Amino acid sequence: MDALQQLFLAPLNHLLRQNAWAGERLARHAGATVLLRTADRAVFSFAIEQNGGFRACEPASGPAVTIELPADFLVRLLTDRSGLLASAHLSGRAELAESLAFVLRNLRWDSEADLARVFGDIPARRLDQLARRSLAQTRDVAGRSISNLNEYLTDESGLVLHSSDFASFIAARSALERDLAQLEQRLTTLST
Questions:
Q1: How far apart are alpha carbons 37 and 68 in whole angstroms?
Q2: Are strands 89-92 and 54-56 parallel, antiparallel or unpaired?
Q3: What is the 8-class DSSP label of residue 51?
Q4: Longest CA–CA separation in the chain, Å
Q5: Given the DSSP bridges, would you call strands 33-37 and 43-48 parallel, antiparallel or unpaired?
Q6: Helix (H, G, I), strand (E, B), or coil: what is residue 160?
Q7: pLDDT tens for the chain, residues 1 to 192
Q8: How far apart are CA 12 and CA 32, in angstroms?
Q9: Which neighbouring-strand residues pair with 45?
Q10: Cα three-residue angle 131-132-136, rounded to 5 degrees
């Protein structure tokens, strides 16, 4: 688990160094331990350092804050970070939990600064812009593809019902059950 913790903490600490305000906000809670638990019960424990960064530590018996992530957290981490944070459950010291939630929600990666260290300022700017455009186009294509697949499955192939058709089916089924119950009641009344 130690290597996995470092794989998680190294990029997080890098983001905290890029966003000085975040480190300052977390530094107020130096020494506090945080327990990160996932749906499959993998457990990471880390402590907040004086500079506002994180370091791996042994799981504490009474962590200051526990963060429970949903089963699909890896997918959400890559595709829907705000959805991941909304579905995470934080418990423990309220002030620290609020600070952690705020920091994690507002951390931003300055990819251009990282690229500039390797390629220089102008190429880094262009590479960053290219990557952002490519990512936006990829999201757009993925969204349109899902929409087209949904339309094909519901309208053209008939493999999936529209929600309105399903609602109509449920309403008709309920009416049929009600009529059947009334018919059974009449038959019971006639037979006695």
A1: 5
A2: unpaired
A3: T
A4: 94
A5: antiparallel
A6: coil
A7: 577 777 888 989 999 999 999 999 999 999 899 988 887 676 888 899 999 999 988 876 778 888 888 887 777 776 677 777 788 888 888 999 899 889 988 888 899 999 999 999 999 999 999 999 998 898 889 889 988 988 888 888 878 877 788 888 889 999 999 999 999 999 988 887
A8: 17
A9: 35
A10: 115
Per the structure block, which two tokens stand in for 172? 């008709």
* Alpha helices (H) in 19-162, listed in sequence order: 20-27, 73-79, 81-87, 94-106, 111-119, 121-151
- Sheet containing 89-92: order of strands: 54-56, 43-48, 33-37, 65-68, 89-92
Helix (H, G, I), strand (E, B) or coil at 119: helix
Rounded Cα gap, residues 50 and 30, in angstroms: 5
Residue 63 near residue 34, CB atoms below 8 Å: yes
Q: Which position has the token pair 């957290």?
A: 73
**Cβ–Cβ under 8 Å, residues 1 and 44:** yes
The two beta strands, 33-37 and 65-68, are parallel
Which candidate, 136, 107, 114, 119, places its Cα nearest to that of 13?
107
CB neighbourhood size of 179 (10 A): 10
Query: Following DSSP, what letter does each residue of 123-143 receive, concatenated?
Result: HHHHHHHHHHHHHHHHHHHHH
